[in-house]
């Protein structure tokens, strides 16, 4: 029995402090990403979410230079970018990709500059890898309260605005007719997405953060026709991918003889893709 | 229709007075005035670009007028009070959206509220009753984006009616519907008007599907409106005056055709007015669809 278990879980998995922190931090971020990401997908803002991830590289690398947790930089720059996107016109269908593209370009340019400083001035390439591809195993338990601090407003915004967001995502005209400020709801949702992306940038990396935001949400939307249930599925799928990813990354240390673990982020994003591909296509009702 | 109680007995639901709307230097609506009483079915008729959608948005409170007033049941800021239900034009519901017909109808009850919706027996019963009232039980649990155009109209009407508004506005609900669905939706609206006592204002470029149910008509052309019963408004003299050029009103088999012409029933292409102020500047053919498809 123990042998069978060891085939799946290598010894010391649950006793390992970095693993416990990774499971906890990754789990929180996966649940927030699944729920907030569902709105990003429903509102057709997947590209905006992706761009916010790219832009947050600038914040993450700036934080590294300043010697604070990258989460502050990820979130600060992300929220700022969300505001600029709204000013340029992310709420208009035609303006959306334009606004996103412009802000993303500027953000990535800053990111390139800060990463250059980070690598030349501190003579380490670790920062670049950590910021771009995440470092779930390096998250210390002291960072978990900060993760919770950022999760609460992100989750709070979409749960408080659940109905106006849902209605304005389905048909903005219907929400506007009920007196809802579609634009205000849109900006707040974009800020929630920015906060969420900054969290997933921390866990699976700025470049890969979209995968956690969009993948589980897109899978959840295929599984059910109920909006609330779709979000619950998204949270569950994100959680499963993250935890399984942590487990496989831990196990991978024992694969082969090199004794080098593979990156967690690789497993997480691969599992998200596998879940999406395994999910059934929603049944299209034939009009009669 | 006849057989209604005397108009004075019924409460006034909508009063539009001396409404003017200028957008981007263009006069969209010019001195439009009319009123509606409860249970009344009014057709807002006009060609594309006549200002129908603008008028509905002003009534809804989404477009401020340049001058003039709109009062819904005596209230000035109607949309806050939840007195007006609205079915917008050409709404594209995404088939990938996880939202059942019953979810969208439920959002008609409380879609502007904050916080998560708590499941309640009362909410579910109201939604079920509304779905039944519009004949949508059969597809209540299907994704709205997967429904046919006629089915989606029923769901949108239920969404607009479930909060029991005094006034229901529908923007071109018959556009893009096949003839059978068109008749279904119109008779459904006729039914709810009388059952719920709600006043219905429905815009259309073709008045014919509405004729059996229409109590009154607001006919828009060149930004101006002629109002009254169909017999009072849809006449050669009234509409020629409204369009600022001669039009013929022709009745065939209970259908009404409005055709541009110069007396005698001979169709002559309307003169194009290049001047800035002509009331029919964007109306070269009053009813091009009818004129071209039915009139030789």
Description:
The complex is a heterodimer of chains A (288) and B (296). Chain A has one domain: ABC transporter involved in vitamin B12 uptake, BtuC (Orthogonal Bundle), CATH 1.10.3470.10. Helices cover 77% and strands 0% of the residues of chain A. Chain A has 13 helices and no strands. In chain A, helix 2 (17-42) packs antiparallel against helix 10 (182-204), helix 10 packs across helix 11 and helix 11 (209-223) crosses helix 12 (227-252). The N and C termini of chain A lie far apart (55 Å). The model of chain A has no long low-confidence stretch (mean pLDDT 84). A six-stranded mixed beta sheet of chain B has the order 5-6-7-3-8-9, sandwiched between helices. In chain B, strands 2-1-4 form a three-stranded antiparallel beta sheet, covered by helices on one side. Chain B has a two-stranded antiparallel sheet with strand order 10-11. In chain B, strand 6 (167-171), helix 6 (179-196) and strand 7 (199-204) form a beta-alpha-beta unit.
Shape of chain B: globular
Beta-strand content estimate of chain A: under 5%
As residue ranges, the low-confidence spans of chain B are 265-296
| Mean pLDDT reading of chain A | 84
Structural class, from secondary structure content of chain A? mainly alpha
**What is the average of the pLDDT values of chain B?**
81
Oligomer: heterodimer
Distance between the termini of chain B: 31 Å
Helix content percent band of chain A: over 70%
Q: Strand fraction band of chain B? A: 15-25%
How can the largest sheet of chain B be summarized?
6 strands, mixed
N-to-C CA distance of chain A: 55 Å
Q: Which percent range fits the helix content of chain B? A: 25-40%
Query: Radius of gyration of chain B, rounded?
Result: 20 Å
Determine Rg of chain A (CA atoms, Å). 19 Å
The overall strand count of chain A is 0
The largest chain-to-chain contact, stated as pair and per-chain residue counts, equals: A-B, 33 and 40 residues
User: Helix and strand succession of chain B?
Assistant: EEEHEHEHHHEHEEEHHEEH
């Amino acid at each position: 029995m123990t042998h069978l278990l060891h085939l799946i879980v290598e010894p010391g998995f649950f006793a390992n402090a970095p693993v416990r922190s990774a499971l906890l931090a990754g789990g929180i971020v996966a649940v927030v990403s699944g729920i907030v990401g569902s709105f990003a997908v429903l509102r057709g803002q997947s590209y905006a979410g992706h761009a916010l991830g790219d832009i947050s590289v600038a914040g993450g690398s700036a934080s590294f230079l300043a010697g604070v947790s990258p989460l502050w930089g990820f979130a600060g720059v992300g929220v700022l970018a969300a505001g600029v996107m709204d000013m340029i016109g992310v709420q208009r269908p035609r303006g959306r990709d334009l606004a996103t593209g412009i802000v993303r370009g500027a953000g990535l340019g800053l990111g390139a500059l800060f990463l250059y400083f980070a690598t030349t001035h501190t003579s380490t390439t670790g920062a670049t890898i950590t910021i771009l591809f995440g470092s779930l195993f390096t998250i210390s338990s002291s960072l978990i309260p900060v993760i919770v601090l950022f999760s609460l407003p992100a989750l709070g915004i979409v749960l408080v605005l659940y109905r106006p967001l849902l209605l304005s995502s389905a048909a903005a005209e219907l929400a506007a007719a009920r007196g809802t400020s579609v634009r205000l709801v849109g900006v707040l949702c974009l800020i929630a997405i920015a906060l969420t992306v900054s969290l997933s940038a921390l866990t699976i990396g700025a470049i890969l953060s979209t995968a956690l935001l969009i993948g589980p949400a897109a899978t959840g939307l295929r599984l059910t026709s109920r909006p609330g249930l779709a979000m619950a599925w998204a949270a569950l799928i994100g959680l499963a991918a993250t935890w399984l990813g942590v487990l496989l990354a831990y196990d991978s240390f024992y694969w082969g003889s090199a004794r080098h673990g593979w990156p967690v982020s690789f497993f997480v994003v691969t599992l998200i893709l596998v879940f999406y591909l395994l999910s059934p296509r929603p049944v299209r009702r034939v009009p009669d | 229709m006849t057989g209604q109680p005397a108009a004075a007995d019924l409460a006034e639901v909508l009063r539009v007075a001396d409404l003017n709307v200028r957008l981007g230097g263009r006069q969209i609506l010019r001195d439009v005035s009319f009123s509606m009483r409860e249970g009344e079915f009014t057709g807002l008729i006009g060609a594309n670009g006549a200002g129908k959608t603008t008028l509905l948005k002003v009534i809804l409170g989404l477009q401020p007028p340049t001058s003039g007033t709109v009062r819904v049941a005596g209230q000035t800021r109607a949309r806050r009070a939840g007195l007006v239900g609205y079915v917008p034009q050409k709404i594209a519901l995404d088939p990938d959206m996880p939202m059942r017909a019953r979810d969208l109808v439920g959002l008609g009850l409380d879609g502007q509220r904050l916080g998560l919706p708590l499941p309640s027996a009362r909410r579910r019963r109201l939604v079920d009753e509304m779905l039944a009232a519009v004949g949508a039980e059969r597809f209540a649990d299907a994704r709205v984006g997967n429904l046919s155009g006629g089915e989606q109209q029923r769901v949108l009407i239920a969404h607009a009616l479930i909060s029991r508004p005094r006034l229901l506005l529908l923007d071109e609900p018959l556009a893009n519907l096949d003839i059978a669905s068109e008749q279904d939706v119109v008779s459904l609206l006729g039914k709810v008007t009388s059952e719920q006592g709600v006043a219905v204002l429905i815009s259309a470029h073709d008045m014919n599907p509405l004729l059996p149910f229409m109590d009154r008509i607001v006919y828009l052309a060149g930004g101006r409106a002629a109002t009254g019963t169909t017999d009072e408004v849809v006449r050669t003299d009234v509409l020629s005056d409204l369009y600022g050029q001669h039009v013929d009103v022709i009745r065939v088999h209970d259908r009404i055709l409005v055709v541009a012409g110069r007396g005698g029933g001979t169709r002559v292409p309307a003169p194009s007015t290049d001047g800035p102020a002509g009331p029919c500047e964007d109306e070269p053919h009053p009813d091009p669809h009818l004129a071209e498809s039915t009139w030789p």
